[in-house]
């Protein structure tokens, strides 16, 4: 048996028909909820093979592997998943699954050569295969970033390798394995671990996505711990359509965030700041608008690159190393990190970014200090 209920021969025939484009692939989309706002932040695309091949996609990929067709199958699935971005509601990202071996394969390079951008795409590196060449993975991460995409480490904590993946790959998202989430409200060891990984994520400017949220009690605990994103049957099942959250789930999040008083949102301490796509354009805006004292240079996906500020001496100052922070990071944590910078840039403003890595505003050290003193 190659996979599920099909015989080896049947499986090989079905696989061949898929790869030839004669049998369509289906996707289901599971919402990933913003656990501060009660909205959908993104969707994970989950491939669904024809029923006769068996129920679980993993078995089908393994079956394809045995036939020497895994890379071809991953290329097809990935290409179609990337194309599904056209169905995305505004301001949402699409998360797709990729094995590390595929990420380093010529087949992936081939997929990349046929796309012009990866804006709005998150690539989850799955944990089932080990990685021997992290340099190559970092290079692939940079290629993805240069095209506007972001990387995630999937199922973090499920095997010894995934923690190593986090340290080595420094992804933008860490998907916390559902093993940590199950009963996190009643198991202090689990909530302590979630908190610890959350703190590590803040330092990496990464977002945590809690997987496998199945109950209200788990959701409440995750919100209390300040986990920014969540996914699971309780919040929404995989569905052929990219659906919004049910109103009762939206309310479940919003009411908890209000009563819990744990809402971490740095936007309330931030200042608006115009953005331009080149340093020249930023400097010229400063020279003509006397009322503006800082302009952010952003890339084509709106991600901050450098801040150009009006100063008395010298007249214009460009930060060598811009510090970026996520909206849901605690103000105290941010200050501690900012003040650990070398003296010449210790008090430079920080760039606030959302979960797509886009620039939201600047954070000034004096405002943050005042907010903490007043709290
Ligand atoms: O490893 P990965 O996170 O990509 O796994 C996604 C799988 O997890 C999908 O097959 C999806 O159906 C399943 N899944 C999604 N939400 C939940 C959940 O709340 N509980 C469990 N047990 N499985 C889930
Ligand atoms: Mn996944």
Question: In a nutshell, what does this entry contain?
Answer:
The chain is an alpha/beta fold. The chain is built from 14 helices and 16 strands. Helix 12 links the parallel strand 10 (275-276) and strand 11.
Topology:
Elements: H1 8-19, E1 26-34, E2 39-48, H2 57-66, H3 70-83, E3 93-98, H4 100-103, H5 106-113, E4 121-125, H6 134-146, E5 150-156, H7 160-169, E6 173-176, H8 178-181, H9 188-203, E7 207-210, H10 216-224, E8 229-230, H11 247-260, E9 270-271, E10 275-276, H12 279-288, E11 294-298, E12 304-310, E13 316-318, E14 324-326, H13 331-338, E15 350-353, E16 359-363, H14 365-374
Parallel strand pairs: 2-3, 3-4, 4-5, 5-6, 6-7, 7-8, 10-11, 14-15
Antiparallel strand pairs: 1-2, 1-8, 9-16, 11-12, 12-13, 15-16
Helix pairs in contact: 2-3, 3-5, 10-11, 13-14
Bound molecules: guanosine-5'-monophosphate and manganese (II) ion.
Residues 44, 97, 124, 154 line the site of manganese (II) ion (MN).
């Amino acid at each position: 048996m190659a996979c599920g209920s099909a015989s080896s021969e049947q499986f090989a025939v079905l696989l061949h028909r898929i790869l030839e484009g004669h049998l369509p692939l289906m996707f289901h989309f599971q919402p990933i909820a913003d656990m501060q706002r009660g909205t959908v932040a993104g969707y994970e695309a989950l491939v669904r093979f024809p029923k006769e091949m068996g129920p679980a996609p993993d078995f089908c990929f393994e079956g394809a592997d045995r036939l020497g067709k895994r890379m071809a199958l991953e290329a097809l699935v990935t290409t179609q998943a990337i194309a599904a971005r056209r169905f995305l509601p505004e301001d949402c990202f699409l998360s797709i699954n990729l094995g590390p071996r595929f990420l380093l394969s010529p087949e992936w390079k081939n997929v990349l050569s046929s796309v012009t951008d990866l804006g709005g795409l998150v690539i989850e590196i799955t944990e089932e295969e080990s990685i021997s060449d992290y340099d190559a993975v970092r290079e692939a991460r940079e290629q993805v970033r240069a095209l506007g995409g972001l990387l995630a480490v999937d199922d973090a904590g499920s095997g010894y390798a995934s923690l190593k993946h986090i340290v080595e790959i420094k992804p933008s998202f860490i998907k916390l394995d559902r093993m940590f989430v199950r009963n996190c409200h009643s198991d202090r060891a689990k909530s302590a671990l979630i908190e610890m990984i959350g703190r590590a994520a803040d330092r990496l400017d990464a977002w945590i996505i809690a997987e496998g949220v199945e109950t209200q009690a788990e959701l409440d605990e995750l919100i209390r711990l300040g986990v920014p994103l969540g996914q699971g049957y309780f919040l929404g099942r995989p569905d052929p359509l990219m659906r919004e959250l049910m109103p009762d789930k939206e309310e479940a999040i919003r009411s908890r965030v209000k009563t819990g008083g744990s809402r971490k949102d740095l936007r309330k301490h931030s200042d608006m700041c115009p953005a331009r796509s080149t340093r020249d354009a930023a400097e010229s805006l400063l020279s003509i608008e006397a009322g503006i004292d800082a302009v952010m240079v952003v890339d084509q996906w709106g991600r901050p690159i450098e801040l150009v500020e009006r100063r008395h001496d010298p007249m214009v100052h460009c930060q060598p190393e811009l510090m970026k922070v996520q909206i849901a990071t605690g103000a105290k944590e941010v200050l501690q990190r900012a003040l650990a910078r070398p003296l010449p840039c210790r008090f430079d403003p920080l760039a606030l970014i959302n979960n797509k890595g886009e620039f939201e505003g600047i954070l000034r050290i004096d405002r943050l200090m005042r907010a903490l003193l007043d709290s």
